[in-house]
């Protein structure tokens, strides 16, 4: 069985093609990504613009044409924080259905945290994990103990929302940093369960960019999944990027697709979350919401076959 999953995020639209194998496992046949900054307008007005909706549909049509050559059994179209927070999400859902024939499923906060957990549970040998997914428009935090999900939620702050609202100068000022930290901590102070000893697992666009930069600069192995990043490495990289201009950050290969504008916001969220935990390092997961959704989909499909 082949499944295509298109994920509309806050910073980009990603598509992956999967083929199921035995024991609910799957192989990734191909993947594409197109930067579409839906989260930019959401942070300011909670509305998707007509231009953003048109751009989204153009990308979806392009991805549909690429998917055709794989002869998939199913195309699933999901969306996370940017669409979830949009007051006019129904306008996008209707336009997508009309123009592409695809039914857009908006993943709610708990589902997004749950899919992150499913992805980590199936790809990492960790029983106790604090799973943190810093996205463009939201951040998901989950706690797993002895392989079972104990806590899972989404907070409405992400790399785009923090950067666009608080970190607007070039270079960024100390006053802006303080304002951003205060805004982040307003969402974290009540989450006392984050103090539970557990492996800190980081995933999402911000973490992927950090892992990629440090991996390249350290001339390490190509596989990023399961790589470990220390707090010292994160602090050093943050200070370096903080004192660079937007133009200088844009020259970094891993940030060249527009992430240079929001990377510091994402790193700041990570930094503030880590301070609330006993962890001194982050284990990177290259698998997240999309893969968690796929694991769940194939598991259900196999159960139905058995019954």
UniProtKB/TrEMBL annotation:
Q: Where is the Ppx/GppA phosphatase N-terminal domain?
A: 17-296
The record's section on InterPro entries has: ATPase_NBD, GppA/Ppx_hydrolase, Ppx_GppA_N
Q: Which domain of life is it from?
A: Bacteria
Instruction: Return one GO MF term.
Output: pyrophosphatase activity
Q: Which family does it belong to?
A: Belongs to the GppA/Ppx family.
**What is this protein identified as?**
Exopolyphosphatase
Biological source species? Companilactobacillus ginsenosidimutans
């Amino acid at each position: 069985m082949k499944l295509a999953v298109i994920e509309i995020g806050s910073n980009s639209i990603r598509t992956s093609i999967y083929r199921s194998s035995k024991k609910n496992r799957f192989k990734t046949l191909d993947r594409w990504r197109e930067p579409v900054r839906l989260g930019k307008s959401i942070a300011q007005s909670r509305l998707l613009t007509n231009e953003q909706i048109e751009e989204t549909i153009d990308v979806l049509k392009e991805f549909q044409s690429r998917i055709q050559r794989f002869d998939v059994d199913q195309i699933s179209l999901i969306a996370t924080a940017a669409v979830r927070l949009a007051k006019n999400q129904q306008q996008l859902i209707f336009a997508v259905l009309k123009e592409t024939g695809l039914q857009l499923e908006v993943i709610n906060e708990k589902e997004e945290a749950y899919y992150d957990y499913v992805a980590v549970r199936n790809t990492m040998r960790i029983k106790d994990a604090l799973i943190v997914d810093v996205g463009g428009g939201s951040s998901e935090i989950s706690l797993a103990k002895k392989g079972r999900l104990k806590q899972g939620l989404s907070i409405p702050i992400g790399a785009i929302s923090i950067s666009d609202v608080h970190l607007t100068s070039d270079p960024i000022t100390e006053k802006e940093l303080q304002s951003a930290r205060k805004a982040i901590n307003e969402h974290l102070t009540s989450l006392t369960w984050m103090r539970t000893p557990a492996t800190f697992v980081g995933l999402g666009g911000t973490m992927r960019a950090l892992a990629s930069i440090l991996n390249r600069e350290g001339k390490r192995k190509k596989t990023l999944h399961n790589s470990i990043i220390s707090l010292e490495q994160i602090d050093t990289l943050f200070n370096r990027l903080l004192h660079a201009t937007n133009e200088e950050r844009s020259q970094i290969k891993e940030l060249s697709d527009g992430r240079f504008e929001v990377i510091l916001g994402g790193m700041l969220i990570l930094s503030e979350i880590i301070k609330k935990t006993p962890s001194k390092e982050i284990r990177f997961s290259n698998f997240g919401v999309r893969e968690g959704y796929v694991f769940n989909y194939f598991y259900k499909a196999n159960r139905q076959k058995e019954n």
